Structures are given as structure tokens and as C-alpha cells.
Amino acid sequence: MSPLAMKALAADLVLVLVFAAAGRAEHDKGNVILGVLDTAWPFLVGAGIGWLLVRQLGKREAIGIGPGITVWISTVLFGMVLRQLSGDGTAFSFIVVATLVLGVFLVGWRALARLLANRKATQV
């Protein structure tokens, strides 16, 4: 994996942790670090599956918007399935919030990066 792809993967994983930390903070659930990891692990697994899917589809660099959508959908889909299988909640409102926030996070940074790259290219 290229250094750029590794940075993109790290960005995705950090943003999933930020999502989990924000949710834990909003609902004030005890031990911060373990709580964040408990909330985040299904979504981290989902993001990993998304990255594997993108690579299997021939997109070696999962930094584009299209691959970002694959990572986002996988993160939410597999994250929710794993939460349900592990006995954690998957209330409709949580699914909606997780889908929207993770979409903004996982696709949003890619869109911003593309916008900045295009702006930089036109200035050269």
C-alpha cells in the first residue's frame, strides 16, 4: 500500500474514532477510552472491509470519492450488522445519524481533498 493510501486509511480510522467519541460524549457513557473502542470496533471492522472491497475492485488507492462511498457504505452496513450481532443497539435514529455523520466524514474529506487538488492544479 502506498504512503498516500496509508494516510487515507489512517484518516478513515481516526474519523470513525471521532464519530464514536462524539457519540459517547453526547450520551455520557462511563470510561472514555474503553467506551469509545466499544462503540467504534464494529465500524472500524466495517471500514476495513470497505477498504478490502475497494482494493479487490482494482482501486488500489481508496482516496477518490467513488471508493470513499464504498468505504462509507461498508462502514455503516457492517458496523450495524456487527452491533446487532453483539447485542448493541441499532435504533432507527442511530442508523440515520451514523449514516449521515460517517458519510460526511468518510466521503467529505475526499471531496475536500479533490477540491483542493483541483484548485491547486488550476493555479499552476
Molecular structure report:
The protein is mostly helical and 124 residues long. The protein has one domain. Helices cover 83% and strands 0% of the residues. It has helices at 3-27, 32-56, 65-85, 92-123. The model has no long low-confidence stretch (mean pLDDT 90).
Structural class: mainly alpha
> Could you describe the largest sheet, including whether it forms a barrel?
none
Number of H/I helices? 4
Order of helices and strands: HHHH
- Mean pLDDT score: 90
Which range best describes the helical content: under 10%, 10-25%, 25-40%, 40-55%, 55-70% or over 70%? Answer: over 70%
Structural domains: how many: 1
Rg, Å, rounded: 15 Å
What is the quaternary state of this protein? single chain
Shape field: globular
Number of strands: 0
State the end-to-end CA separation.
29 Å
Fraction of residues in β-strands? under 5%
- Unreliable segments of 5+ consecutive residues: none
List keywords for this structure.
single chain, 4 helices, 83% helix, 124 residues, mainly alpha
Summary, kept brief:
With 124 residues, this protein is mainly α.
How would the blueprint of this fold be written?
Layout: H1 3-27, H2 32-56, H3 65-85, H4 92-123
